[in-house]
């Protein structure tokens, strides 16, 4: 033993060097072989080689995609469809919107989504928590058979506890309830709401608990999806988390804004399918769709073709990214974008800029007051790129608006949980809907146009007037934008 200790004390620098070579080399090879984005591959290999021990550890925590594709496979979708006595929904006819440029976009959606574009859906726009949360609680209280809820942030505040109480009442009267909360999002409030859910006997779970027990506020691979499905017949989705800050009762004059959507019709099956996949991946419980879905819908008018678009670091990688590339390419008149975090990559930026250079009117609305200071700095650093190409950029005055809304030519809308930033487009599990409806597009456009009327235009002159030290700060933070 003494000889081993003396040998180690004499040669430990050599052993440490050998260990760093093995660990660093293995991590660098893994990054080079698994990263499809050359910039990501170069960045990770550089971090690993520059810090042969700390670099691989950081890569293990933040850079490795731990999602196995076979966990979220289409084979399970196939078996579920075969077990259901529900006929497939009729394929939607988009001719009613009288916009032939969308025919190719529909084909793109068919190949990206794997969900059919189905007709017969009613989409109701809900403005902020004052409209969305009461509607959600009313639906939960009326539930007769099942409730599935998935969200990123579920705060332990006045609104969160109201929803927990409604879920507990449903559970007590025999309704099947499942609640899935992202592991990172659950830590936004103390104590986390999942403790209260479990105390009240509501079946709940955390999606993607952090590796090694680390509590990292920016851990990768989050479920950013927002889904509530009641009795398989009515659903809520969009970009709004469960937080009292979106209600005037709690926040008063500082109420944050957002946009959520109440959905009725066959697209609810798609929302339930996404939840069932995420729940099975997290808990290994296979939800029987016969008990969680409905084959009867009687949605009110007007009706619209719609479908869900999944994206995430699995087989649905860059789903939203590719859909938006196609949408911007077919635009003929007007593109409206509202995003709280506008940090598109260079490919998506190129598509937006190309649309503007083709003569398309492109309006981009971002918050004047942002809840994430670093993201705001990074956004500001690259606004000149879209303004140079002719896009109009607006900073909305008033309270922070968390809405994620896109419309094309007054006929096509894209709504959901995805932000236009690297994390949403490549790292998060996201869920969005494409909607072919002039009525829905007009309602969303009215919301965006109202923001523009109460906004300040961002110009090249106003960007140049920012002091150099702040422009330098913004640019440095922009370099780290893929990890914000």
Brief write-up:
This protein is α+β, with helices and mostly antiparallel strands and 484 residues long. The chain has helices spanning 2-34, 38-50, 54-62, 74-83, 102-113, 128-141, 158-172, 193-199, 248-251, 267-283, 289-292, 319-330, 346-357, 373-388, 422-427, 438-453, 460-464, 468-479, and strands at residues 118-127, 146-151, 176-182, 204-207, 227-230, 234-238, 259-264, 304-311, 334-338, 361-367, 392-396, 405-408, 412-416, 430-436, 455-458.
Structural topology:
Blueprint: H1 2-34, H2 38-50, H3 54-62, H4 74-83, H5 102-113, E1 118-127, H6 128-141, E2 146-151, H7 158-172, E3 176-182, H8 193-199, E4 204-207, E5 227-230, E6 234-238, H9 248-251, E7 259-264, H10 267-283, H11 289-292, E8 304-311, H12 319-330, E9 334-338, H13 346-357, E10 361-367, H14 373-388, E11 392-396, E12 405-408, E13 412-416, H15 422-427, E14 430-436, H16 438-453, E15 455-458, H17 460-464, H18 468-479
